[in-house]
Amino acid sequence: MGSSKDLTNARWRKSSYSGNTGGECVEVADLGPGVAVRDSKNPGVGILTLSPEAYAAFVAHVAVK
Fold this sequence. Notes:
The protein is about 20% helix and about 25% strand. By secondary structure, it is of the alpha+beta class.
């Protein structure tokens, strides 16, 4: 998505694609024009922001793994 975004007020939720054991937790936040993704176990490491199309491709790719 290119530019840095202030995600202080982002509403994060655990992805329905994350495992239930707590070891594979991904959180997502709807940014309106895009989607943010972070590791729930270590959210300070970084955030990946994607366009809706890129997020759909990402989910489709990891869902088959």
